[in-house]
Design a protein that fits this description.
Helices cover 31% and strands 20% of the residues. It is of the alpha/beta class.
Length: 407
Amino acid sequence: MTQLISVNSRSYRLSSAPTIVICVDGCEQEYINQAIQAGQAPFLAELTGFGTVLTGDCVVPSFTNPNNLSIVTGAPPSVHGICGNFFFDQETQEEVLMNDAKYLRAPTILAEMAKAGQLVAVVTAKDKLRNLLGHQLKGICFSAEKADQVNLEEHGVENILARVGMPVPSVYSADLSEFVFAAGLSLLTNERPDFMYLSTTDYVQHKHAPGTPEANAFYAMMDSYFKRYHEQGAIVAITADHGMNAKTDAIGRPNILFLQDLLDAQYGAQRTRVLLPITDPYVVHHGALGSYATVYLRDAVPQRDAIDFLAGIAGVEAVLTRSQACQRFELPEDRIGDLVVLGERLTVLGSAADKHDLSGLTVPLRSHGGVSEQKVPLIFNRKLVGLDSPGRLRNFDIIDLALNHLA
């Protein structure tokens, strides 16, 4: 078996102990702090003693797909090409989901590990990530969302519902993430993969603020699984795809800037196109509203004038040109618009008001996408070695840290 592999200009040592990398979707660090203070996360609380607790930056836009793919490639979107959940395909002139592996431009560490002879397992909450994370992977790969369809030929394992002892959970529930952890425990106990990647859903974080009973119960559930993985001798590495913030005014009303309506009023209809890369099939909990948008200019709308107009709107944190955004956030130039707009911490960006169904927002809006959701945890159940001055850490450094720098 190969002991060292090279993927996207980085080298990884193959682990001799089961290694579990966990992406906790929407894990604003305050959730962990509050759960620990409430006595709901004793294992995480103990990690300051025998493990490592750090902070890193996620990829901007701070959305699910770009960050999960950055984690499993060890590289930013400029390398792997996935810069949102949704993008405007210039060739077809259509807005499309980036769930298809044909949009992926780089190999994953997961697939390369499997090629090197390791048993690799991937369990995701939502099926939207399965094709991307499992691209060219010869191993185990399935989603909790479609656990009833898991079979040996396609997914590398079978009878997962019976093994886990849970029914197929609702996609809008905490149970969807718990199924991921329970499935991971079953795989660790039975197949004992060399490397496992677990990715959850941020349904709870969209609905419940840090320190609420629902949030603390969710983190207590995760904490119990982290402890069991640890007790079975696994290396456990935990990070997030993005943080989460309230996007409301002082009395809980959504703070929304409908950019398409504002641009249409300024320049006329059909002269600009606002695209929201947070858009995906699961919009009940966020209404396709996030703090990052990209804008395409048409019919000779002056770029400088559009920048000044957008930057002058209260709630807009920054407006960047395509080249500025690509340089700052390491994005692929052919998959973003002429401008990138970032909302302030308490503000989300929409397109046109009549394009968003907010009926599912039964609690004050919480969302992500901007730089205010960039800080994420980097947590390990072992001490880091050989990294005296690590400098800026990213969530997509986690596999390198887990395989190359843990005692």
